[in-house]
Amino acid sequence: MGLAWGASPATAWAQAPGAGADVARARDLFVQASDLRDQGDAKGALEKFKAAHALAANPITAFELARAYAALGMLVEARDAYASIARLPVQADETDRAKAARQDAAKAIAELKTRVPTLAVKVSGPPDAVSVTLDGQPLAASALGVPVPVDPGTHQLVATGVGGARAEQTIALKEGEAREAELDLPAAAPAGAPGPAASSVAPSASAPQFGSPALADAPSSPPSTVSGNHFGPVAYVGFGIGAVGFVTGTILAVATLSKASSIDCSNAECWQASVDAAHATRDLGIAAAVSYSLAGAGVAVGVADMLLYKPGPQQPTTGLSLRPWIGAGAAGLNGSF
Fold first, then answer.
1. Residue 320 covered by a domain
2. Together in a domain, 96 and 180
3. Are residues 103 and 18 in the same domain?
């Protein structure tokens, strides 16, 4: 820019305004910042230049601070730093380097004017109580619709209206670009009107809805039970076996008596037939006794289950049923599935 920035720190600070420890500290920070910039640490150099300028503000520190901002793409901050030099009082013994900084700052501002992008923010919708933020910072109402200088890069816009209405937009800008961004803010719902998520049909007060406190807090109803003792599955089987055993035993007992009455032999010729009949009668009697025993055991099991069985919660009817039956000369179980 026509300014020989290679001058030694001593020359640069020879006639800096102020005196004492702050100036000495500012000089050291300035040197450190220059070294960091030469080493490629732009962020570190920026922090050192800011600290030096805060301790001893002069055209030189302001100019180098502006250069550090520009190196990091913070063009708006760089422009403001350059512009601040014109507001610094001119010292009577101001050095040539300070004078050159004033002249070059004006040229730098003109150059940045073509590089700094602008963003015009517009908000559509109800104008009442609208607040807009740009990258988290409030944007004045007077700045809405007006091109505002911003740094190149990505920016976040948020508009908030009455009743919590909200609109957001992310926009990326390049150097020298002029853009407009419009945020469409939805209208606030009328007072007392249901929100957009409210159902058009109000739920009945007597019918708790899914997830409602009334449903969540209501104690669960105990499963319905049937009082008293009833036939359980084992009772059906026991009585069925008892019925079959009783019928079978009775049939065998009748056959035994019939066979026994046929044993009548008064001569040697029918002796063998009588012996066979006696053996058959014995076998039938044993079978009848076994059948009666099974019948008794089945009845005992059925009675015990009937007395001890406690029905559980009623279940939906599945169509399963089982019933014993006794008929003339036969017995069994009837069931449906």
1. yes
2. no
3. yes
- Name the pTM for this structure: 0.50
Same domain, 90 and 170: no
Full residue range of the structural domain in which residue 129 is found: 118-184
200 in a domain, yes or no? Answer: no
Residues whose CB is less than 8 angstroms from the CB of residue 82 and which lie 6 or more positions away in sequence, other chains included: 62, 63, 66, 105, 106, 108, 109, 112
* Better-predicted residue by pLDDT, 239 or 61: 61
Under a CB-based contact definition with an 8 Å cutoff, are residues 159 and 183 in contact? yes
Q: Give the domain-ending residue among 169, 184, 199.
A: 184
Out of 27-31, 44-48, 83-87, 327-331, which region has the weakest mean confidence (pLDDT)?
327-331
Does residue 199 form part of some domain? no
Examine the pLDDT at 160 and tell me if it is beyond 60. yes
CB 66 within 8 A of CB 74: no
Overall domain count for the chain:
3
**186-198 pLDDT tens trace:** 766 555 555 444 4
**pLDDT (tens digit per residue) in 78-128:** 999 999 999 999 988 889 999 999 999 999 999 999 999 999 998 887 656
Please provide the DSSP assignment of 232-253 as one string: -HHHHHHHHHHHHHHHHHHHHH
CA 74 – CA 151 distance, rounded (Å): 6
- C-alpha span between 335 and 80 (Å, rounded): 97
Residue found under tokens 């039970």: 225
> Is there a single domain that holds both residue 165 and residue 179?
yes
Whole-angstrom distance, CA of residue 91 vs CA of residue 240: 123
Answer with the one of 127, 151, 184 that is the final residue of a domain: 184
Q: Are 187 and 125 in contact (CB under 8 A)?
A: yes
266 burial type by CB count under 10 A (0-12 exposed, 13-18 middle, 19+ buried): exposed
Give yes or no for residue 337 having a pLDDT over 70: no
